[in-house]
Backbone:
């Protein structure tokens, strides 16, 4: 099965600076990589995702990069704001058609320092 | 649109008690799944369903049962609760094959004493 490792487990950055969270996956057949944000007391919410046929994707201050050769993908948040403080999870999905099972990383607690 | 609704939000059980965690979605999603979230371990898949009448085991299915009699509902049953089942449980749903966005409920925080 798939195994996803996520680093760092905690990250503190000054407001306005950038934050980077990295994940690696084990199964080269994985083809879909979403990132979820979980605020306190809430369920995870998808913030951005990338498929294996794309190397980078951006959505305003958020970007995700994928290196299929190295089997790692990263979340980049620029111009961080206090509302970016949350726990972030990466995930990977194997390419079995119709298989919606995601394997999650262990999460990164991001704290934005005002 | 309510999305994915989980009840209850909090529950305390004694060891050996049984209970059902409810999950309902109003988005006509085919896929539904249950995860548990424990500190330092991320989200782990318990059971999932690809449609009404079809369920399968995930990564950590022991001690849990599920059924999917309708498209909307996917309850998770604990037959005999154990302290190791103390966790936060999330239900999620997604539309169909090829559309991978999973929508999560707000979670049920369960404590087993």
Residues:
């Amino acid at each position: 099965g798939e195994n996803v490792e996520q680093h760092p487990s905690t990250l503190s950055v000054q407001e306005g600076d950038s934050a980077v969270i990295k994940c690696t996956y084990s199964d080269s057949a994985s083809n879909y990589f979403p990132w979820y944000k979980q605020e306190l007391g809430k369920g995870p919410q998808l913030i951005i995702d990338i498929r294996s046929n794309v190397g980078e994707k951006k959505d305003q201050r958020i970007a995700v990069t994928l290196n299929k050769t190295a089997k790692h993908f990263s979340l980049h948040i620029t111009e961080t704001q206090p509302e970016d403080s949350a726990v972030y999870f990466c995930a990977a999905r194997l390419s079995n058609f119709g298989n919606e099972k995601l394997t999650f990383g262990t999460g990164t607690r991001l704290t934005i320092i005002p | 649109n309510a999305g994915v609704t989980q009840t209850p939000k909090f529950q305390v059980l004694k060891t050996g008690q049984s209970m059902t965690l409810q999950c309902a979605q109003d988005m006509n999603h085919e896929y539904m799944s249950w995860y548990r979230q424990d500190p330092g371990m991320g989200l782990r898949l318990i059971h999932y369903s690809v449609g009404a009448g079809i369920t399968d085991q995930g990564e950590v299915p022991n001690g849990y049962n599920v059924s999917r009699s309708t498209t909307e509902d996917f309850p998770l049953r604990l037959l005999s609760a154990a302290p190791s089942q103390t966790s936060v449980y999330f239900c999620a749903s997604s539309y169909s094959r090829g559309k991978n966005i999973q929508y999560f409920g707000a979670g049920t925080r369960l404590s087993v004493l």
About this structure: Chain A touches chain B through 27 residues (CB under 8 Å).
